[in-house]
UniProtKB/TrEMBL annotation:
Domain of life: Eukaryota
The keyword Zinc-finger is assigned to this record: yes
Alphabetically ordered keywords of this record: Metal-binding, Zinc, Zinc-finger
Naturally occurring in which organism (per UniProt): Cuscuta campestris
Name the record gives this protein: CCHC-type domain-containing protein
Molecular function GO labels: nucleic acid binding; zinc ion binding
Region named Disordered: 318-338
Biased composition annotated in UniProt, kind: Basic and acidic residues: 325-338
Domain CCHC-type: 280-296
One Pfam family it belongs to: Retrotran_gag_2
Length: 338
């Protein structure tokens, strides 16, 4: 709300075509331009009086010029005085009470206008300092990241308009070149295409704005949106990879345990046949079977305990002989321990 109010400062008269724009003490540059247009459209002669001044009717007394009295005015003098009074009246109708008091001592419309300029724009030295500052902003102007064309042109126009109010102007060619140089990297190809196909001298600043807005809405932003979606999808798939790799590692580890166990059992049975005689169960002491396949196992808990130690042994051994010895030692330990 505050920004809206500041943007419309100086518009107290509702932009009427029959009344001068009211100056409320803010946004002087805007009011000054509107006031100039209003006066010129009403009576251009009054604008000349305000800018150039109107001499007070004079007469010569003993080789010295002195002001005429009202009774001494001729028709031409009366016309001059009337026009000056009209110009003063227009300014009075357009300023607030504070500015009226500041200008009430002025006798001509030019004095009033010049005093307002000095009050709100400063002296020539102050204006030069403002021009230097705004010119520096103009030279350093760059498009911001992710900034839209309308937003960039709004910032750019503010600088250019303020300089114009201080009588510092640029040609369309200079403005177009500045904008093209100020674009970010994603606009580089478009800027090069404009320079090569159309040329800077054949483009106005308004035409450039429309061209860039069309490219922005139809090509640039849709392509950036697709790139953003692809980036999100890639990020999501990357985040799933560690979990998939972890699951795969667990599967490989389990498969390796099973593989080593089967290798161990084949080696064990082969050695049993090599030494002669059927295999002997270290669980119940009977021959013809081994403990993992013993039908006389006491309970499921004993089987599970055996499986755990069997898996541990299969991991620890690198060769069939070592695995076999480790298996025997652990099995005896369980028999002795009950």
């Amino acid at each position: 709300m505050a920004s809206t109010q500041s943007s419309y400062a100086g518009l107290g008269e509702g932009q009427s075509t029959t009344r001068p724009p009211l100056f409320d003490g803010t946004n002087y540059t805007y009011w000054k331009e509107r006031m100039r247009i209003y006066i010129q459209s009403t009576n251009f002669l009054l604008w000349r009086i305000i800018k150039n001044g109107e001499d007070v009717p004079m007469k010569k007394v003993r080789e010295t010029n002195v002001p005429k009295t009202e009774n001494e005015y001729d028709a031409q003098d009366i016309k001059k005085v009337e026009n000056n009074a009209k110009a003063i009246n227009i300014i009075y109708c357009a300023v607030n009470p504070d500015d009226y008091r500041k200008n009430s001592c002025c006798t001509t419309a030019k004095e009033m206008w010049d005093k307002l300029e000095i009050t709100y724009e400063g002296t020539d030295q102050v204006r030069e300092a403002k021009i230097d500052f705004l010119t520096h902003e103009y030279e350093l102007f760059r498009m911001k990241e992710n900034e839209k064309i309308d937003e960039m042109f709004e910032r750019f126009s503010k600088i250019v308009n303020d300089l114009h109010a201080l009588k510092k102007t640029y040609t369309d060619k200079e403005l177009v070149r500045k904008i093209l140089r100020s674009l970010t990297l994603e606009w580089r190809s478009k800027a090069d295409a404009i320079q090569e196909s159309i040329g800077i001298t054949n483009v106005t600043i308004d035409g450039l704005r429309g061209n860039l807005k069309t490219y922005e809405s139809t090509i640039l932003f849709p392509s950036l949106g697709e790139q953003k979606k692809k980036g999100i999808a890639l990020k999501a798939s990357s985040s799933q990879e560690p979990a998939m790799e972890e699951s795969s590692d667990e599967d490989n580890e389990f498969g390796l345990v099973i593989k080593k166990f089967h290798k161990f059992m084949r080696e064990y049975e082969r050695k049993g046949k090599k030494h002669g005689g059927p295999p002997k169960c270290y669980g119940c002491g009977e021959v013809g079977h081994i403990k993992p396949k013993c039908p006389n196992a006491k309970n499921e808990k004993e089987k599970k305990s055996f499986k755990k130690h069997r898996a541990y042994i299969s991991w620890g051994g690198d060769s069939g002989d070592e695995s076999s010895e480790g298996f025997k030692e652990t099995t005896y330990f369980h028999r002795e321990g009950g």
